[in-house]
Design goal:
Layout: H1 2-17, E1 39-50, E2 53-66, E3 71-82, E4 88-100, E5 105-116, E6 121-130, E7 135-146, E8 149-158, E9 165-174
Antiparallel strand pairs: 1-2, 2-3, 3-4, 4-5, 5-6, 6-7, 7-8, 8-9
């Protein structure tokens, strides 16, 4: 009787071990991950600093690290830019991005939208932020809107808050109603 109980217990363990173990779910973001990446991070957050001053906080759904972790390729990017006093300047969203840690350069691609704290909005397909000079630039077509006014062109150079913008070519603008002195 004792032998049959031990045999029955061993048989139950063997049957249990034969069950197929479900594959862990890695989420939709894991599809298409480059196996050559040094590291993959889901839900990443990176702080971009310059001499102890935070210039940007960059978040992404997925970040792939390459070249000894000096190049980040990101998907679904959300960044917050800060001015020299540490106040929030603007926020940026894009479908993808690249951050080169050696150069301090953040590139955003695919429906890039930058919105400043005072409501100005810039849309383009590609933009580059250089933290060393605290400057954004693009050579792609763009549209900048604010309070019923609009400026557009191909390529620009500006500070992240878009106070000082230089349009490189094809500049056009549209203004809302103008108030003339004495009227």
């Amino acid at each position: 009787m004792r032998k049959s109980a031990i045999l029955l217990g061993a048989l139950a363990i063997a049957v249990g071990a034969c069950k197929k173990v479900p594959t862990p779910k890695t989420g939709a973001a894991a599809k298409g991950i480059d196996p050559a990446a040094d590291q993959v991070v889901f839900g990443s957050r990176t702080l971009v600093t310059d001499r102890g001053l935070m210039r940007a906080e960059v978040n992404s759904d997925t970040s792939l690290f390459y070249d000894d972790n000096t190049r980040m390729e990101m998907r679904n990017v959300f960044a917050i830019f800060f001015n020299s006093s540490g106040s929030k300047d603007a926020v940026m969203t894009s479908r993808s991005g690249r951050y080169l840690t050696r150069d301090g350069v953040l590139e955003a691609r695919g429906h890039v939208v930058i919105t400043t704290v005072d409501g100005r909005k810039l849309t383009t397909e590609e933009i580059r932020f250089d933290q060393r000079v605290n400057q954004i630039a693009s050579d792609s077509p763009f549209v900048l809107t604010e309070d019923g006014r609009e400026a557009s062109g191909v390529g620009f150079v500006s500070d992240p808050d878009m106070n000082n913008i230089r349009i490189l070519k094809g500049s056009r603008g549209k203004v809302g109603s103008l108030r003339l002195p004495g009227n």
